[in-house]
Amino acid sequence: MVVYAHPLTDAQIDRVFHALADTTRRDIVARVLAGEQASVSALAARYQMSFAAVQKHVAVLEGAGLVTKHAQGREKIVRGNPEQIARARDLLARLEALWKARFSQIDTLFTDTPTQE
User: What is the pLDDT of residue 109?
Assistant: First the structure.
C-alpha cells in the first residue's frame, strides 16, 4: 500500500465522497480514468442532460480533485486524477483495518473469557 505524505484533510474527504455519491459523477470518473480523455462537450453528449449540468458535475469532481481540466484549443479536456482516487482508497483501507482490528479484539475477548459451568 502506498502511503502519501499529504493525506486527505477532513474537508477534502467530504468533497471526494460527496462527489462520488452521484451516479453520473462516478460514471464520468470511471470513463476518464479508463483512459477516455474527453472534452466536456463529448461527455455531455453521453448523458441525457444539458451541457451546463454536465459542466457542473465536472466542476464538483474537479473541486474534489478527482479530475482535472486542461484547455486544448477551444475545448476543455477532462482527465482523471488517479492519485486522488488512491488517497481515498488508502483512507478506506485504513478504516477497514480499524474495523477488522475491532473484530479481532472481540474474538480475543470471547476466547480469553473462561466459561462458567
Answer: 64
Other CB atoms closer than 10 Å to residue 75's CB: what's the count? 14
Report how far residue 32's alpha carbon sits from residue 81's, in angstroms, rounded to the nearest whole number.
9
Mutual angle of helices 10-20 and 82-112, in 10-degree steps: 100
- State CA 106 to chain mean position distance: 31
Q: Which residues pair with 68 in a beta bridge?
A: 79
Report DSSP letters for 70-108, one per residue. EEETTEEEEEE-HHHHHHHHHHHHHHHHHHHHHHHHHHH
Q: Which of 109, 12, 108 is nearest to 63 (CA)?
A: 12
State if pTM tops 0.85.
no
Domains of the chain, each with CATH number or no CATH: 10-112 (1.10.10.10)
Q: Which residue type sits at 40? A: V
Cell output for 58: 465536472
